[in-house]
Amino acid sequence: MNVEQRIGILLKEHGWTLSAAESCTGGRISHMLTTVSGSSAYYLGSVTSYAVSVKEKVLGVPASTIDEHGVVSSEVAAAMADGVRRITSSTFSVATTGLAEGSDERWPEGTVWIGVSGPAGTFTRIYQTSGDRKHNIRSFTASALLFLEKTIKNYIKHYK
User: Which sequence spans correspond to the domains of the chain?
Assistant: First the structure.
């Protein structure tokens, strides 16, 4: 059983829902989640916020957060996860912001910040890999889904 199927089982068992805000993964997380039969029972939708303006205007990421920390940061990943969770009213959300190709003044190519928001709060982690653009996007997606699964399981263990 793959991670997206395991996530689906956890969400359905508890009647919870999920949304996503994706930048560097370009919709691949949403794609993987919706390959699971019956995902419409728990998956509400996503925002693919490639542009900074979409992060700010749609997801509500403060411009000051981007200015202070950079678009590839824990703070922006957390704000994206919180924003999509707020606009969809989902129980959990997952977000990615990173560099599938190229680097910036702070981070090398292959860096992603992942944010997961849920009833117990918002958590982030950094993940780094090396490869070409397609490899990095696939790897970012897998890491985000595994972090989401771990966060949901931790919530069940500690709060349910």
Answer: 3-159
Say how far apart CA 23 and CA 35 lie, in whole Å.
20
Phi and psi at 113, nearest 5°, equal -100, 130
Nearest to 144, CA basis, from 117, 113, 122, 118? 113
pTM of structure: 0.96
Contacts 24+ apart (CB under 8 A), 75-78: 76/113, 77/113, 77/114, 77/115, 77/124, 78/115, 78/117, 78/122, 78/123, 78/124
Amino acid at 55: K
Superfamily of domain 3-159: CinA-like (3.90.950.20)
Is the torsion defined by CA of 148, 97, 81, 29 positive or negative? negative
- Report how far residue 89's alpha carbon sits from residue 83's, in angstroms, rounded to the nearest whole number: 10
- Output Rg (C-alpha) for the chain, integer angstroms: 15
Q: Can you tell me the distance from the alpha carbon of 148 to that of 81, in angstroms, rounded to the nearest whole number?
A: 11
Give the pLDDT confidence of 84-96 residue by residue, as tens digits. 999 999 999 999 9
Characterise 45 by phi-psi region: left (phi > 0), alpha (psi -120 to 50), beta (else). left
